[in-house]
Specification:
The chain has 321 residues and is an alpha/beta fold. It has two domains: 16-45 and 151-320, Rossmann fold; 47-149, Rossmann fold (3-Layer(aba) Sandwich), CATH 3.40.50. It is built from eleven helices and ten strands. The strands form two sheets. It has a six-stranded mixed beta sheet, sandwiched between helices. The radius of gyration is 19 Å and the shape is globular. The protein binds pyridoxal-5'-phosphate. The site of pyridoxal-5'-phosphate has 20 residues, from α3, β7 and α7.
Length: 321
Amino acid sequence: MKRLPRLALAHLPTPLEALPRLSAELGGPSIWVKRDDQTGLAFGGNKTRKLEYLAAAALAEGADRLITAGATQSNHCRQTAAAAARLGLACTLVLAGEEPSRKDANVLLDHLFGADIRWVSKSGRDAELQAVYEHAKADGGKPYLVPYGGSSPLGAAAYAYALEELLVQIQPDWIVFATSSGGTQAGLVAGAKLLDYEGSILGICVDEKAEELAPRVAALAGETTTLLGQQLPVSAADMLVNDGYLGDGYAVMGNAEREAIRLLGSLEGLLVDPVYTGRAAAGMIDLVRKGFFNSQDKVLFWHTGGGPALFADTYARELAS
Ligand SMILES: *Cc1c(COP(=O)(O)O)cnc(C)c1O
């Protein structure tokens, strides 16, 4: 794979750990975890890998501000704000939702990193993002727009490299993880094509149906292979996405997420979050129980972070009861 300009923001390689007590409890295949919740910057997460490339591009353009958008408890926005702080750049976050009466969890961290936060309704998000960008330029600044979830070909490329990092540690039969804006999955799929990895890459949908997500991620994966030096076609049929665990929708913690959070916490001392990794872990646990995996398989759960959301009032109250 072609090497792209990178800033060192993450602690890499992230650790690989076995989850023997979970495997035994479920009576299933051996289960492993890739700890991208331990990427180091600002409590970690998958966006930090993407930001190593996106922020390098921003600095190469002479940017003085990072601008991005997300949901209230966006992990992407929190890691972007931290990266900006570390690089001496200003940061504006456009957060879709009601301004919470108490700054908690990721919102508190955004604040501590010195980000300028704009609260908008979900429908007003794109217009506000554009307005913030134009305004920064009109003021003589050099803003850099970080894509949603860091999911452009450049951000996704980080996960092609991450697959290369993983395959030195373990050659799993399955890689299971939470998929949302699609950059993680697109990068892993692009990496698999470029590295001839033959295991299965299964995204558990967090907020969209498979029929919407798969074509978009396939297109992004194809563009990512091109960026990495070889134009390889990726079709929606190449994408394994399971939308059977959407529950009551994005960021709504249900019984399945609660059970996964408690199970991993109590058996392994491992934290998963209410929005992304809790949902993906719940999906993986259900698939193990249903006998979806072969008992000889090595199943790798790619932990993408999100832990700070556990401390958001909405989730913490419910988890504590
Ligand atoms: C953003 C995020 C994801 C989803 O990654 P995408 O590349 O956007 O699909 C998964 N888990 C956590 C904790 C995230 O913050």
